Amino acid sequence: MSSSSSITINNIKQSTVISTQIFGISLFIIGIIGHTLSIYVFTRRIFRSNPCVCYFLASTLSGCIVVYMNIPLKLLQVGYNIDIFTYSVAMCQSLTYILICKGFLCSCKCRCSS
Q: pTM score, two decimals?
């Protein structure tokens, strides 16, 4: 009984790792394409007269931080079992600071747009 349950648990863990790798890489690629196109559209000269474009561009840049930082970090941690935060204290502190600032900027952006 315990042998079959440990095999089941290992299968679940393995399927979680594989699905994280597949979905993480596809989210990363789709996010890069989507945010690049959004930056291209919102920096066009036609849209600069609209004040909402500034907020949309800020939102796109905030999303870029998520795509370029959070998704690869989670992909490395869960998908490949590489934890960058354990290698260096300076790396851990700088990444934590950047992620906290990103969260603060998102909340400020939401307050300013309403």
A: 0.75
